[in-house]
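Chain A, query sequence.
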Amino acid sequence: MRSRLLAVTFEAVDPAEPARFWAGLLGREVVEDDGGVLLPGGDTQLGLRFVPGRAGRLGANRMHLHLTSTDLDDQQHTVATAVSLGGRHVDVGQRPEEAHVVLADPAGYEFCVIEPGNGYLAGCGPLGELTCAGSRQVGEFWSEALGWLLVWDRGEQIAIQSPRGGTKLAWDTWDGTPVAPNQQRFELLPDGDQREAVDELISLGAARLDARDDSTVVLVDPDGNEFYVRPTGRHPGPLAE
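Chain A, predicted structure.
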């Protein structure tokens, strides 16, 4: 029994602030529930959730969002909109000749606005990719766990994508000091029974950590990253499949 990816969760001191930022930047609705603030992604775009916690730490965040551009005007418009909504330019060591633009959202999480003509993200939609620090093994784990296709596998880089297309998930080895416990994590919803879904994830290489008061089960993937499996039937908005 596979689980569906509901969202990637980001901790923030004030979750409403980055939620407003990303809703304005991506043109999404904001849904509040007992789990935080959710920006549903629809059928093929990754959902984003913001919950109370610690702010992001530049240079130590383990996940980055990549936004796509249709042309140079579109890229410049996206960057200008992000800055007007409270984003800021940041230097993470990018070279002057690189055409993507690196920004940070109000909660301190980096993201990139990718230049037009990037063939790798062609057809992925506005939120083209979530790239993560991690191993090939963890990418293979998530491919099996979600039933997503392996669409890139070169050296230490691996990427997967839903059979329906849309946002890619990618992993690569990064420099920098990781933050533990994670401030960013995946949030899953089972297709059926939660216990059966958890058992399957464990059989694929996950390990169980805890169960929360709301019956959410906390697991870690093969790289030791926490992720949540929510109770069946408790979710707002569409899901990425």
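The longest helix spans residues 72-84. The chain is about 20% helix and 35% strand.
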